[in-house]
């Protein structure tokens, strides 16, 4: 909790809200500032508009400035992916990334989705948020659809991490996500063991 100008407590969830079209230039600025340093992929305005319903932003309650963003994309009945998680360089290390991932977790819970995944370089950060390292091949084929657009697809060094929400039941009556079939040729996976 932090205090507002009037001394009232503001809950962390209220600093996070669904993104609107007005946020898109700022979201792009934050993401692409990290992309320039090779930490994540560049996003075009077209990509951001298309995915905007998946996005939430962290808005500083004092300055009103958007300081971070995150998207939760549904992959399958029991799997969603944290994407485009980025915090303004000047605001890193203040708990904003954690709040954005917690928003993703609550969103997955609301949707009844049991597992959340991330493809990332930030192993320690995600471990602190109860994600565990998993083999890339354990994720479904659909996860790799974006890799064709990635310049690093032939030398991908991201790791896959998953958090299972044990309080969310396994969905009934819908197929759950299955691992990428063995033998499927996807550069990003390298050699998938039998
Ligand atoms: C990764 C990122 C989102 C973290 O956001 P943040 O606001 O700086 O992180 P937080 O302050 O919420 O950190 C939460 C915890 O993780 C730890 N942490 C954050 N980044 C870390 C790192 N790189 N290595 C180790 N620990 C880290 C913090 O120390 C904190 O630990 P604590 O709760 O014990 O104090 C942010 O650094 C960022 O935007 N990075 C560039 C883009 C990127 O890599 N995005 C991830 C793509 S999946």
Quick summary of this structure?
The chain has 194 residues and is of the alpha+beta class. The protein has helices at 24-35, 45-51, 96-111, 123-128, and strands at 2-3, 9-10, 16-18, 55-59, 66-76, 79-87, 115-120, 132-134, 159-164.
Q: What topology does this entry show?
A:
Blueprint: E1 2-3, E2 9-10, E3 16-18, H1 24-35, H2 45-51, E4 55-59, E5 66-76, E6 79-87, H3 96-111, E7 115-120, H4 123-128, E8 132-134, E9 159-164
The structure holds coenzyme A.
Give an overview of the whole structure.
- By secondary structure, the protein is of the alpha+beta class.
- 21% of the residues lie in helices and 24% in strands.
- The chain contains four helices and nine strands.
- A seven-stranded mixed sheet has the order 3-4-5-6-7-9-8. Strands 1-2 form a two-stranded antiparallel ribbon.
- It is globular, with a radius of gyration of 17 Å.
- The N terminus is likely disordered.
- It binds coenzyme A.
Helix content: 10-25%
Ligand inventory reads: coenzyme A
Radius of gyration: 17 Å
| Global geometry | globular
Low-confidence stretches: 1-10
Mean pLDDT: 88
The ordered string of helix (H) and strand (E) elements is EEEHHEEEHEHEE
Strand order of the largest sheet: 3-4-5-6-7-9-8
First-to-last CA distance: 49 Å
- Tally of individual helices: 4
Q: Please report which band the strand proportion falls in: under 5%, 5-15%, 15-25%, 25-35%, 35-45% or over 45%.
A: 15-25%
């Amino acid at each position: 909790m932090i205090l507002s100008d009037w001394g009232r407590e503001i809950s962390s969830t209220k600093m996070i809200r669904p993104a609107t079209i007005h946020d898109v230039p700022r979201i792009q600025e934050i993401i692409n500032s990290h992309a320039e340093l090779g930490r994540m992929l560049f996003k075009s305005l077209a990509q951001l508009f298309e995915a905007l319903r998946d996005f939430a932003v962290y808005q500083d309650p004092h300055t009103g400035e958007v300081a971070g963003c995150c998207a939760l994309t549904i992959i399958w009945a029991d799997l969603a992916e944290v994407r485009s998680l980025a915090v303004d360089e000047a605001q890193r290390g203040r708990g904003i990334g954690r709040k954005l991932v917690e928003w993703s977790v609550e969103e997955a819970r609301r949707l009844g989705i049991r597992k959340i995944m991330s493809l990332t370089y930030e192993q320690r950060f995600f471990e602190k948020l109860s994600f565990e390292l998993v083999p890339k091949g354990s994720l479904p084929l659909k996860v790799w659809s974006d890799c064709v657009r990635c310049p690093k697809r032939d030398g991908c060094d991201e790791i896959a991490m998953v958090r299972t929400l044990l309080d969310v039941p396994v969905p009934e009556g819908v197929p759950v996500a299955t691992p990428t079939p063995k033998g499927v040729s996807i550069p990003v996976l390298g050699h998938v063991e039998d």
